[in-house]
Specification:
Helix content of chain C: 40-55%
Number of strands of chain C: 15
Strand content of chain C: 15-25%
Number of helices of chain C: 13
Strand content of chain A: under 5%
Number of strands of chain A: 2
Strand order of the largest sheet of chain C: 7-6-8-9-10-14-15
Oligomer: heterotrimer
Shape of chain A: globular
Structural class of chain C: alpha/beta
Chains: A mainly alpha, B mainly alpha, C alpha/beta
CATH architecture of the largest domain in chain C: 3-Layer(aba) Sandwich
Shape of chain C: elongated
Largest interface: A-B, 68 and 63 residues
Number of helices of chain A: 11
Chain lengths: ~300, ~425, ~375
């Protein structure tokens, strides 16, 4: 069989979309991990809550009769506010008291939080799937490529790149970012030089959660539905992506997401979609065998 | 006492929670008309609830204060000298540990627990017995994982994979070759142990969270293969009609079978406890502890890191495999969905909740986490909510787990004292 | 006051019995009916309506004095549609001494618990477990169901695809779940037996994934005329949306797992033209209208999935216990097989293996945001 380049490009595009989706969520994971060294299992749930808040706010604003663009802006702001609020509160309740506890305790607390938030939304809202408004219009200039990718794919790619750039900028060049890096390196030392560590950690959680909200809105608009369970499944994959890229590294999260998305897409296209998860995880194992700290992660030298 | 500042803080926090829950609990979209249904009453309840929760510590202080005042008043009236209130909290936590470390008390405790366990099925109905069998199963799983996570310090998020290997070993061998439970029991354990070795080799270099995600991936791989390799595993349709354990070829009535399975499980759990306990004190067990505390120091002391890690993985897996065989025999059917990540998280929660590395802790953890949701069944919809909340609360108030491990240590002073006596 | 079960033969009998029979039964004596299924978790929307249907009828029967003076007691158990939890639920129901069970919701758990019920000779009527083997294997004389099995449904879809759509190239897709997989398995057998169409693609997708564009590209490349999908609506709506966004006009045909209003609410305009098989239209059946009205009155909302199936199951069960004047398995099973009962799903009886006769399937198409049955 000859090589079908059109098909390859199509699979590449779908891999790009899937990868960007993973990357968007993985960024929040990796940020939190980089600074507090904690696997925040509830991150997926924040993403889900962000999507739900957007859904509720947009329904309310539509009833009130606001125009489309105003509705999207206000609902997005609401979604970011509440997702940030939940992220902040979750950290204060479930992680802050455990800063000096044994290493596994915050992990269990995070799993508990994740289960709690899922059921909280299920009971508070519904156990059914809900239709999510389409916030990304179909762009005319993308019509020639419609059979390969849609405008929502396009918006997701672009957003991922922008978000990554903004995040890198925040961490590299702003005061908060510098304080974050200092906290990541040595918490006690950072405190000694006058950094309010609690504030920095809260800021990390709020930024990470805001990112999750943006991801939640775009991805839900792409898939067209929301459900209380979406955060968990996406969360696990995003976490895998973060580890694959080297947890704690911002470009690593994006690279990890893309590698994972591509692997799944090509596995589906050229082999069988039944085994796409097997491919994804086998790839992870392989990469970690040769690079135990992930693709872009720096191997820590062991200190005695 | 409650000061104005406290009240302001309480109101602020409550207000914050009310804002937070406003969209999820306070609004809902009516699917038929797309209208917003406001349910502000829920939000009010949240506000009220948080006020009450926050006031509790203050009320407790108030109560203690009043109590102390009353006692002083009493003594004043009676003319007796007030004596100091004794601080009792200092050593309370270690009661169970004191019992365990004292051989005589331990023997009594074991005897009491064992007697209760043996009497238990005679006084309750079959459903309760079944729940207990489930709990025993998870005690075995918890103790198995305890070897890997608690003793050797290797975070394994895919433990359920070995459990699945054990369960499917029995199911498939029985389906194709008619092998009975007793034959399958060691085979399931051995197969799972081999899988443990296979997984162990490539990930020896990984540490901490990287190890965690690879094991998680391994668990998912096994499940997906079970789902899709239909020729071998029947896929999601599962394998049904697996016979329960036989009893010397005798036919048993259904209720006898349950009793038999129950006592069998008691036996397994006792054996597991015995073996794990012996392991803990063995050369290997000490090597695990050393590995957990400091890998580099451990290597410097001449412990073979690779072998020790592999031993932990395969032994833990062996135990999970055996538990898997029992699971298949108890449920009489196996399905891939039973071996999801959540199951791994559950077993890990048992170990961490109980107290890593502590056998008694794991037993308590399993009993709580398995029995609690069963008894919360009445609340059906809310039980997972409570489950999540309990995990978080437990970790906040007792991050070391229910039972913290007693570290074996030598009391230098008493040894010196002994030497002195001997020398004199 | 209107008689709630006016049209059913059972009710007349029950009414007469109540009027003339001496009050012999003791007050504490009840008939315990277990309802097991997904009452929470992801599949709760398939299991809760069953519980509601059973509650509604039990209330009505009890208001009329019960069956031969015995009141019905409903015991509900949540199994989350997970086999290992279902086993516990079943054991709980058994030790609570249930006389019959309506459930379980999903096929997997049902096949996991049937040996337990069989051991204790407890009658089970499932409103929604469709795996053909449950009846066709003749393993469980105590099992009945008020839903057509997968192979019957697959046949309806296959005939529709071949005869009405006239398709030549078929892509088969399933969600790797027990329901979808079994449905596709039988469809494939029937396509192969017929031989008019060629199967060009066969894939299983991962449930809950964030994006299905890779598999959609694969369908496009296979140049299939029809996609036959086995599974539930969440994945189906994502796949259809992606297909339509990629300007594919391929027909999308599926099972009753997607024939719910939620599917149309989620997929919106992209749902137009999708075909789904489901139980025959009951909207003109007065009993069905009444059953739905009762639900609205008691719970203030439209009933959910498998509500009418469960309603039917409960009606035939009450009738059979009444006719047999006992809760003993063989007597009730005999009554179930011999009686023809007017129910919201038509005149229902049961054949030798426990499948309902008189419950059939038809294919509907989404037109203007509504499912419309195709003649």
């Amino acid at each position: 069989m000859h090589f079908d380049s059109q098909y390859f490009i199509e699979l590449f595009a779908s891999g790009l979309t899937k990868g960007s989706i993973y990357a968007l969520i993985a960024l929040g994971y990796t940020m939190v991990y980089g600074i507090v060294g904690l696997i925040n299992f509830a991150h997926g749930e924040i993403y889900m809550i962000g999507a739900f808040v957007f859904f509720l706010a947009s329904s309310l604003l539509t009833v009130l009769g606001l125009p489309m663009w105003a509705m999207i802006c206000i609902a997005t702001a609401a979604s970011i506010f509440w997702a940030g609020g939940y992220g902040y509160t979750v950290e204060k309740i479930a992680y802050k008291p455990l800063r000096n506890a044994p290493r596994l305790s915050p992990l269990i607390s995070a799993i508990g939080m994740s289960v709690f938030l899922q059921n909280y939304v299920m009971l508070g809202q519904t156990e059914k799937y809900l239709g999510f408004p389409e916030v990304i219009p179909e762009f005319d200039f993308l019509e020639p490529f419609a059979s390969t990718f849609s405008s929502s794919d396009f918006v997701i790619w672009v957003t991922t790149v922008i978000v990554m750039l903004i995040l890198t900028w925040i961490i590299k060049f702003t005061r908060t970012g510098k304080a974050m890096r200092a906290t990541a390196q040595d918490r006690t030392m950072a405190e000694l030089v006058g950094i309010n560590v609690n504030q920095i950690i809260s800021a990390t959680f709020i930024i990470g959660s805001a990112l999750a909200a943006v991801g939640g809105i775009l991805i839900s608009s792409h898939t067209g539905s929301i459900h209380y369970y979406i955060g968990f499944i996406a969360g696990i994959k995003a976490f895998t992506a973060a580890v694959l890229g080297g947890i704690g590294s911002i470009p690593g999260a994006v690279l990890g997401g893309l590698v994972l998305g591509m692997a799944e897409s090509f596995a589906t296209g050229y082999f069988s979609s039944a085994y796409e998860d097997v491919f994804a995880f086998s790839l992870l194992v392989l990469i970690l065998i040769f690079r135990p700290a992930g693709l872009l992660g720096r191997a820590e030298t062991e200190k005695v | 006492m409650i000061t104005a500042k406290d009240i302001r803080r309480i109101l602020l926090v409550s207000g914050w929670f009310m804002i937070l829950t406003l969209p999820i609990l306070g609004m809902r979209v009516d699917p038929l008309s797309d209208n917003i249904l406001w349910r502000l009453k829920n939000v009010m309840w949240v506000g009220l609830g948080t006020v009450v929760l926050q006031s509790l510590p203050h009320l407790w202080h108030l109560y203690l204060y009043l109590q102390a005042g009353m006692i002083r008043l009493w003594h004043h009236l009676m003319g007796t000298p007030p004596h100091k209130i004794v601080e009792k909290t200092a050593h309370r936590d270690s009661l169970i540990n004191r019992v365990i470390t004292n051989p005589r008390q331990r023997a009594i405790l074991c005897a009491v627990v064992l007697t209760l366990t043996i009497i238990y099925p005679q006084v309750v109905n079959e459903y309760q017995i079944n729940i207990m069998i489930m709990a025993f199963l998870y005690i075995m799983l918890g103790l198995g994982l305890n070897i890997v996570v608690g003793m050797a310090g290797l975070l394994d998020l895919g433990f359920v994979a070995f459990y699945a290997v054990g369960a499917y070993t029995y199911a498939l061998l029985n389906l194709h070759y008619g092998i009975n439970f007793w034959m399958a029991l060691p085979l399931g354990g051995i197969f799972a142990g081999i899988f443990g070795l296979l997984l162990g080799f490539p990930i020896l270099r990984l540490r901490g969270d990287y190890l965690a995600i690879v094991t998680l991936g391994f668990g998912e791989i096994i499940r997906v293969i079970l789902e899709n390799w239909i020729e071998l595993t029947h896929g999601v349709a599962g394998i049904v009609n697996i016979p329960g354990p036989t009893f010397f070829g005798l036919g048993l009535t259904p209720s006898q079978k349950i009793l038999y399975l129950y006592y069998l499980m008691v036996l397994f759990v006792v054996i597991t406890i015995f073996v794990v306990n012996r392991l803990q004190d063995s050369r290997l067990g000490r090597a695990w502890l050393a590995l957990r505390e400091d890998e580099i120091a451990c290597q410097a002391m001449g412990i073979d890191k690779r072998r020790t890690k592999l031993a932990a993985f395969s032994l833990g897996a062996f135990w999970a495999g055996i538990a898997g065989v029992v699971f298949a025999a108890q449920n009489r059917s196996v399905y891939p969905v039973s071996f999801s990540f959540l199951e791994s998280a559950m077993i890990l929660s048992i170990v961490v909740l109980g107290g890593m590395g502590s056998i008694v802790g794991v037993i308590l953890g399993a009993l709580i986490l398995i029995l609690l949701p069963e008894y919360l069944r009445e609340l059906s919809q809310y039980r997972m909510l409570f489950f999540g909340a309990i995990l978080v609360l437990m970790m906040i108030f007792r991050p070391q787990g229910l039972i913290s491990v007693v570290r074996r240590k030598y009391d230098i002073d008493s040894i010196k004292a002994e030497e002195k006596e001997g020398g004199a | 006051m209107k008689f709630p079960l006016r049209n059913s033969a059972f009710f007349m009998a029950a009414c007469c019995l109540f009027a003339f029979a001496p009050a012999a039964a003791s007050a504490g004596d009840t008939i315990k009916i277990g309802v097991a299924g997904a009452h929470s978790g992801q599949l709760a929307s398939y299991g809760l309506p069953t519980l509601k249907a059973v509650q509604i009828i039990a209330e009505q029967v009890n208001a009329k004095g019960g069956i031969h003076g015995k009141k019905i007691e409903v015991l509900s158990e949540d199994d989350l549609c997970k086999p290992e939890i279902a086993v516990n639920s079943a054991k709980k129901l058994i030790s609570d001494g249930v006389d019959a069970v309506i459930g379980h919701t999903c096929s997997g758990p049902t096949s996991a618990v049937m040996p337990l019920y069989k051991e204790k000779s407890i009658l089970v009527i499932s409103p929604s477990a469709t795996t053909p083997g449950l009846t066709k294997d003749k393993e469980y004389p105590n099992f009945f169901r008020t839903v057509a099995p997968d192979d019957a449904q697959a046949q309806v879809d296959v005939d529709f695809i071949l005869d009405t759509l006239g398709a030549k190239k078929i892509a088969l897709l399933d969600d790797k779940g027990d329901y979808g997989k079994s449905f596709i398995h039988f469809a494939k057998e029937q396509f192969e037996k017929d031989g008019r169409a060629k199967i060009v693609l066969e894939e299983g997708i991962t449930q809950g994934a964030v994006d299905y564009s890779a598999i959609v590209q694969k369908i496009k490349r296979s140049q299939a005329d029809v996609v036959l999908y086995g599974g539930y609506h969440p994945e189906a709506s994502k796949i259809v949306t992606t297909m339509r966004k990629k300007r594919m006009k391929t027909y999308f045909v599926s099972d009753d797992g997607i024939r719910v209003q939620t599917f149309i609410d989620v997929a919106k305009k992209y749902a137009e033209g999708v075909y789904a098989s489901s139980s025959k239209d009951t909207t003109s059946n007065p009993l069905a209208i009444k059953a739905i009205e009762e639900h609205k009155k008691k719970f203030g909302s439209e009933p959910g999935e498998f509500y009418l199936n469960a309603y039917t199951a409960m009606i035939v069960l009450v009738n059979a216990i009444d006719k047999a004047d006992s809760t003993e398995l063989s007597a009730v099973a005999k009554a179930l097989r011999s009686e023809v009962v007017a129910t919201p799903m038509g005149n229902v009886s049961f054949d030798e293996v426990g499948d309902a006769t008189g419950i059939g399937y038809a294919v509907s198409k989404v037109v203007d945001g509504k499912f419309v049955e195709q003649k």
